From TrEMBL, chain A:
It comes from the Bacteria. PROSITE patterns: ABC_TM1. This is ABC transporter permease subunit. SUPFAM superfamilies: MetI-like (SSF161098). The lineage of its organism: Bacteria, Pseudomonadati, Pseudomonadota, Alphaproteobacteria, Rhodobacterales. It holds the Pfam family BPD_transp_1. Belongs to the binding-protein-dependent transport system permease family. It comes from Szabonella alba. GO terms for molecular function: amine transmembrane transporter activity; carnitine transmembrane transporter activity. It is found in: Cell membrane.
Automatic annotation (TrEMBL), chain B:
Keywords: ATP-binding, Nucleotide-binding, Transport. One of its GO terms (molecular function) is ABC-type quaternary ammonium compound transporting activity. InterPro entries: AAA+_ATPase, ABC_osmolyte_uptake_ATP-bind, ABC_transporter-like_ATP-bd, ABC_transporter-like_CS, P-loop_NTPase. Gene3D superfamilies: P-loop containing nucleotide triphosphate hydrolases (3.40.50.300). Its EC number is 7.6.2.9. It comes from the Bacteria. This is Trimethylamine N-oxide transport system ATP-binding protein TmoW. SUPFAM superfamilies: P-loop containing nucleoside triphosphate hydrolases.
């Protein structure tokens, strides 16, 4: 009846297949047509179907259909969900707190403290008055069009997530640079995090946490944005001049002294480049994360899409661009200062 | 000449590859470097090295690139561990050292100067010079006096707050030497320390090292591929080729008695008049002989004597050492010694030079 009957007949697996035709799921359209017309469906060699799960299922009921696979995955995830939650929930709780606190602080402070404070940070990092002026103009504009609160929310989320990325990313990068085995293990994970569409890891996260919890989007952002800082820390430390490391060894430095006295300072330009990338990627992700209740400018973008408010969408998009420019320029200025002091 | 031995290297082998111990067995059975590489894919780095390095003297290890000289010097402070053999420093087998002892050795007893300087680019000149004390946890306030002293000694005053990249190559290497001196170690390893410098600056640095050496009498192990440099600096010269010692001894002796064609080819290009000393070509005698044109110190080089004699080959000089006559030098002997083969074919000269 089905194309691949011959395999199971040939191998004598007919019994194993159970042959319980009754348990078969919905038939294919072709089968249905064939049944109603009382004729056997003839499949020409040209139309031979790929031996996929569904096609093999037609020949043998013991083979699952592909929708069994996806529902199996789902069931599997739901089964481990509760036990996973027991472990992951308390571990990630501080993230929720940090995000809540930061959101609260940045919105509670009045604008006439917040904007000068941000200007001061820009000066401290970049030592350039031009940069400070850029920060003032951008935030002034965003506040002028009444997007101040949204901007602060976005910024608060980025600050927290980027900080946590650096907090975990740099040590992971160091571990990778010290051991080829760790590096070999980490690279596929990093590749996966980088290539997986961001929406894809939002899905299991929604199952795992409630949508009201900030850590839901926090984790999504961190997973997406942590990759560059890990990669560039690893690269930076591996690129440190081997002669200098040899000199450190020859003068009897301990591993610790080498790490903090030589490797990290010399890898700093690369690490800062990673931090810059991480901040930019968390900004990209914070927009997507508004799908799962992340506050900020992303919400406005989403509103623009959902209710076709073109103006809101465009203006909030511009706001994100301005934020991106500021964050990029400020971190690049910091990077340039490090580079200048190290040649 | 050599009284106390500071560093002893005994039957040292180094083989690079996956299974050095297996390859070691082949090498001990007489397999050469090329065969080992072709048949077993292992690189023979060092082949049965035995060297005694006298205390307070300069030992120069010379060889062309790939001869294993940089590998050898890295065995002395165990930046590389050998496949077999012993390295004894002050009679202690450093291969048995644990991490802590090894760090102590590197911090207090051996310092190193590198071909590419290897200064810390993120630290100032002063901080670089004070590397060794800072590793021990000493603050800048404590070590800066010492570091400044040595920086001044190598001719780098007032550059304390510069960064290495602001200095020229010669100045960077001076920082490298100051860094080694500040550690107050009695052994200094110099890995092609002057090879990356311009010829004139190199000469300056060689003179600086000779000066320092006269003053401090450290045990210096100096690596070079430059025969002129090695003859200028060496008290004890070790010539490496393909990982084994072709010849070692006093430089004058090697120059006059090259052990094999490889060294002969090496030494044939040398300005012998400048390198050879009167004591190496004189005839040893305390008797006064015939007509004497003048007195000459036993350590003077031949060039100065040729200049003094005005090229007159009939002259004869009395060779003095500490006010005593130790020998007689015929100008004809001197001239003969300037020709590579002629000089070395005289068996007496060899004995006297030794």
């Amino acid at each position: 009846m089905a194309t691949y009957d011959f395999i199971f007949d040939g191998l004598g697996l007919r019994d194993w297949c159970g042959d319980g035709e009754k348990s078969g799921g919905p038939m294919s359209m072709a089968d249905l047509l064939g049944e109603t017309s009382g004729q056997k469906v003839e499949v020409s060699a040209w139309d031979t179907p790929f031996p996929s799960l569904d096609n093999l299922h037609d020949a043998c009921n013991a083979i699952p259909q592909s929708r069994d696979l996806t529902s199996g995955l789902e069931r599997g995830f739901l089964d481990i969900k509760d036990s996973l939650k027991i472990v992951v929930d308390p571990l990630t709780q501080p993230l929720s707190w940090a995000l809540n606190e930061m959101l609260w602080v940045m919105q509670a402070l009045p604008w006439w403290i917040m904007i000068p404070l941000l200007m001061l940070i820009a000066y401290a990092v970049g030592r350039s008055m031009k940069l400070v002026a850029l920060v003032a103009v951008c935030f002034g504009f965003l506040a002028f069009v009444d997007y101040y609160d949204y901007t602060m929310q976005t910024l608060a989320i980025i600050f927290v997530c980027a900080f946590i990325c650096v907090l975990f990313g740099v040590p992971i990068g160091i571990a990778m640079s010290r051991s080829d085995r760790v590096q070999r293990m980490m690279i596929p994970i990093l590749d996966m995090l980088q290539t997986l569409p961001p929406f894809v890891y939002l899905i299991p996260l929604i199952f795992l946490f409630s949508v009201t919890e900030p850590k839901l989007y926090g984790i999504a952002i961190i997973l997406y944005a942590i990759v560059p800082v890990i990669r560039l820390t690893d690269l930076g430390i591996r690129l440190v001049d081997r002669d200098v490391i040899e000199a450190a060894d020859a003068f009897g430095m301990t591993k610790r002294q080498k790490l903090f006295g030589v490797q990290i300072p010399l890898a700093l330009p690369n690490i800062m480049a990673g931090v810059n990338q991480t901040i930019m990627m968390s900004l990209a992700m914070v927009v997507i994360a508004s799908l799962v209740s992340a506050p900020g400018l992303g919400v406005l973008v989403l509103r623009g899409i959902r209710s076709l408010e073109l103006g809101v969408g465009l203006l909030s998009g511009l706001g994100i661009v301005l934020l991106a420019i500021i964050l990029d320029r400020v971190t690049k200025a910091a990077l340039a200062r490090i580079n200048a002091s190290q040649k | 000449m050599s009284d106390e031995i500071k560093i002893k290297i005994r039957n040292l082998y180094k083989i690079f590859g996956d299974k050095p111990q297996m390859a070691l067995a082949y090498v001990r059975n007489g397999m050469g470097k090329t065969e080992l590489l072709a048949e077993h894919n292992h690189v023979l780095g060092l082949n049965n090295i035995n060297v005694d390095m006298p205390a307070g003297k300069t030992t120069v290890i010379m060889g062309l690139s790939g001869s294993g000289k940089s590998t050898l010097i890295r065995h002395l402070n165990r930046l590389i561990d050998p496949s077999a053999g012993e390295v004894l420093v002050n009679g202690d087998d450093i291969l048995s050292y644990n991490d802590k002892q090894l760090r102590d050795l590197r911090q207090h007893h051996m310092s190193m100067v590198f071909q590419k300087f290897a200064l810390f680019p993120h630290r100032t000149v002063l901080e670089n010079a004070g590397l060794a004390p800072s590793i021990e946890g000493m603050g800048k306030g404590k070590y800066q006096k010492d570091a400044r002293k040595w920086l001044a000694r190598v001719g780098l005053e007032g550059q304390d707050d510069q960064y290495p990249h602001q200095l020229s190559g010669g100045m960077q290497q001076r920082v490298g030497i100051a860094r080694a001196l500040t550690s107050n170690s009695d052994i200094m390893l110099m890995d092609e320390a002057f090879s990356a410098l311009d010829p004139l600056i190199r000469t300056d640095m060689q003179n600086l090292l000779i000066e320092l050496q006269a003053e401090l009498a450290k045990t210096v192990v100096f690596i070079t591929h430059d025969l002129d440099e090695s003859l200028k600096l060496a008290d004890h010269l070790v010539i490496l080729k393909d990982g084994f010692v072709v010849q070692q001894g006093e430089p004058q002796h090697i120059l006059l008695n090259p052990a094999d064609p490889y060294i002969e080819a090496f030494v044939s290009d040398i300005n012998r008049a400048r390198v050879l000393r009167v004591r190496s070509v004189m005839r040893q005698t305390t008797e006064a002989m015939g007509e004497i044109s003048g007195e000459v110190d036993h350590d003077a080089n031949l060039e100065s004597l040729i200049e003094r004699s005005g090229g007159d080959t009939t002259n004869r000089y009395r060779v003095m050492k500490g006010g005593q006559q130790v020998g007689i030098l015929e100008m004809t002997d001197l001239v003969r010694s300037l020709v590579p083969r002629g000089g070395s074919s005289d068996p007496d000269a060899a004995r006297r030079a030794g």
